[in-house]
From TrEMBL:
SUPFAM superfamilies (UniProt xref): Nudix (SSF55811)
Source lineage: Bacteria, Pseudomonadati, Pseudomonadota, Gammaproteobacteria, Chromatiales
Domain Nudix hydrolase: 26-157
CDD domains per the UniProt record, alphabetical: NUDIX_CoAse_Nudt7
Keywords attached to this entry: Hydrolase, Magnesium, Manganese, Metal-binding
Protein's recorded name: CoA pyrophosphatase
Source superkingdom: Bacteria
Amino acid sequence: MLAGEFRQRFMLQTAAAAEAVTPGDKHQAAVLIPLIDYGDKLHILFTQRALHLRHHPGQISFPGGRIEAGESSSAAALREAHEEIGLAPYAVELLGHLPLQSTSTGFTIEPWVGLLKPQKSWILQADEVAGIFEVPLTHFLQQKNRHLFSLRLRGKMQQLHAMPYQDKFIWGATAAILHRLCVQLG
């Protein structure tokens, strides 16, 4: 899928704006879904969280984090991407956001979709990010690569999304956000 086609199919719902998170609450977060435009294909960039982190250690995620008081969710997503992987905010064309995503740990995430050109290098903040990798968007658009499974978390059975790719296991909120993106793209 090319960037132009992605823009056309991504028609964000204006109703999603009504779901915006409230800045300042310690459990409100924003992430950036970085879509790298290679001209003839789009890739999604992921981070792998450092193992010593309190929340979701070692898990695959999008760049992002808590929304600070007085900060918009889009500003938080761009700030966190800059802090975590060295992505300059001006290098991202924000297309809009997906509906809010809740996590089993009590966070509410507002996912922002942004297009960017390939970067020469990334500057990883080792305290937060253990590594980064890319996956072609077409991998996730194929229904056969999107799965649901049940897992007991915090005493309750929960349905969770999973999207394996090569030696990576993308699951939980990150996979749920990807699933919503794929459904929206049709």
